[in-house]
Amino acid sequence: MYLKNLSVLDEVHICPDCNSRMSACEAPPVHVGDGLGWGSEVLFICLNNECPPFKTGWEKVEVNYGHKGTFRNMQLPGSKELNVMMVASEYAFTGSIIDPDEIKMQNERYRNEMDALAALDTCLAENDIKPVMTLILDELATPAGRKRAVEMLVRFNDLSCIDAIRNHTFKKTELTQATDLVIQKLLQDNNKKECPFCAELIKAQAKKCMHCKSDL
Fold first, then answer.
1. By the 8 A CB rule, do 48 and 63 touch?
2. pTM over 0.85
3. Degrees, nearest 5: CA angle 44-47-50
4. Which of 24-28, 30-34, 122-126, 147-151 has the lowest mean pLDDT?
5. Beta strands in the chain (DSSP E)
6. Which neighbouring-strand residues pair with 83?
7. Which terminus of the chain, N or C, has less C-beta within 10 A?
């Protein structure tokens, strides 16, 4: 989840019916009532099962609507206006509670990705490989951005990227194959090879590894 406005996570909402602190929860993509969105990425929900609207709601829903359900109190960020939401079970919203620290980490990752994408047009001229590596090693980055970054590696002709790539586990096989091809090209262009025993870079014609002393 990427949250545009992190300040909403600092808000404190207290349920007026039970005085419990309401939980910041990720808003469902669709409003059940009108089929539209909520107008907010975050909803503050009272998840106290002893809250009066929740405890008494089961019977009211059964009598008035003929199905199982109850109510939870809800407030929107920046508002103290109380809204009541119908929920189908006691577990509703318990799986969408927002962890502020996790959201901040996700936001930072997203910003880094956007900065790296924006820098792709100039990083080669500036000899700055960092944006390229940021995208390649970010498993959540867009496939198109990662593919473009891999294609740029050869043009940097920078052997320092090899170690980071070799130590990364790619979730997509095509990226593993693409980076392997790039590494082979970089090694060939620089008259280097990888020691099969210690993986350090050595001269292509070497008969003994200068690092682990293994015979090749």
1. no
2. no
3. 135
4. 30-34
5. 23-26, 42-45, 70-75, 83-87, 192-194, 201-203
6. 74
7. C
